[in-house]
Amino acid sequence: MAIKVELLGGLDLLFNKQKALSLSLSNLGSTKLGSLIDYMAQIIEKPSQKDLFILNGTVRPGIIVLVNDQDWELLEKEEYNLEEGDEVVFVSTLHGG
Measured between alpha carbons, how far is 41 from 36 in angstroms, rounded to an integer? Predict the structure, then answer.
């Protein structure tokens, strides 16, 4: 079972400049959205930048998570069960200036 992940707002820079990924749910070990977040943190190109994506076991404040265009806050957050064909978008609202 595959899902699509998009990385917007500069998050692609943490993932070798990949703006979109296709991932197999079997690679995550669980169908929970929290497992996807853990997996994404593990594949960050530079481990020293992990804290730019994850904080205390979840995405850091300032990163919006959408599942099939719905805010994850409405979908049980980390407990949401991913399904075949789901599209998960991570959007960073944190910008320098």
Answer: 9
